[in-house]
Here is the input.
Amino acid sequence: MRKILFIVLFLFSVHAASSQVLLTLIFGEKLNSPNIEFGLEGGYNFSQISGLESSKRLGTFNLGFYFNFKLKEQFYLYTGVLVKSNLGVKALSISDLETSGVSFIGSSGVYSQRINYFIVPIHAKYVFGNNIYIEAGPQLGLRYKAYVEYVNETDGVDTRIRQDNKGAINPIEAGVGIGMGYKFKKIGGLSVGLNYFQGFVNVYKSNSNTKNNAAFLKLNLPIGAKKSAKQNQDDHLMDSNTTIN
Here is the structure.
């Protein structure tokens, strides 16, 4: 079951073979300990940008890695990086296109704003005795790519045109995230959760009323957590035997 879930996470994106994710796979077992959980985060988000005429949410996949630091019983610090993630909005109007700084191509297609961020949550997390958890805290983002995509299908021919507008987008995102979820102890420590993010920074440099917001459906899969726990038990047993001898 664990292998199947792991494969599903990778199928979220063909481009998931980034160096950050490879580090997760290579060093996951070594980074896990009784007070630190390390693994992959994958999921799907529905985002929009307030202050525009369009309010249609853009759906995209996410993939990255996470750390869960145990501070004390039931309290954790949750952080990590979504290395592949998009925020934006779908079905831009002509007025929205002017705000985004790109050219009008045709009225028969759909325009979508897509902004690629490295997203870093810094959340305080509390886990109840029934494995339900809640979390909240600041969330930061660093924009590394932005474009408006025009999509039009005519007579079975799919046309896609991307216009770069990275310069029109503020490079830093900052806001707050809140969420809740559940941890399955019997499925390799897999967690499922739902988070909401509200940005406080203007998305477009030319418009002071545009803010990101998004709902994230996520899966967290620890890498090597069981082996790490078993190794700690073996080490403790060896220490006990040494003391007895």
Notes: The CA atoms of residues 121 and 139 lie 4 Å apart. The radius of gyration is 21 Å. DSSP finds four helices and ten strands in the chain. Residues 3-17, 228-240 have pLDDT under 50 and may be disordered.
